[in-house]
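[Automated response] Your request has been received and processed.

Submitted sequence:
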Amino acid sequence: MPSTDVAALIEQQLEKTSGELALLIDDMPVSLQRRPGGWFYLVELTLGVEISLQVIELALRLTAPALVHFTANAAALCFNPQNETLNLIVRLKNDQTDYALSLLESICNQCEVWQETLLSVLTQQRVKMSV
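Generated structure:
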């Protein structure tokens, strides 16, 4: 989908007072949701492993470096108990379309980094545990 189409969809959604917009950005499902406190992007980390306590603990150890690296646009890591997945969530600080597009790009980049890093750490942990 061309970026102008995404911009138009986001702009239309931000004009509403509630609801959700589901997007697929580079095969990554992203939703723009109205929640208490404003509009939020939510993206699921696709890890291909069961989210156990060990996975959550490993992920939580990465939150401080992620906050430092992504600074003001850093998404928060959260657990979705409905489908037992790890997700990134970030609140839009304003409803300007340009800002929303920039934040969308940021959360998609963050998701890719989180997935690659977590999978790498999980692979190393499995190797260490099996030795």
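Summary generated for your ticket: The longest strand covers residues 28-35. The beta strands are 20-25, 28-35, 38-44, 76-80, 85-91.
If you did not submit this request, please reply to this message.
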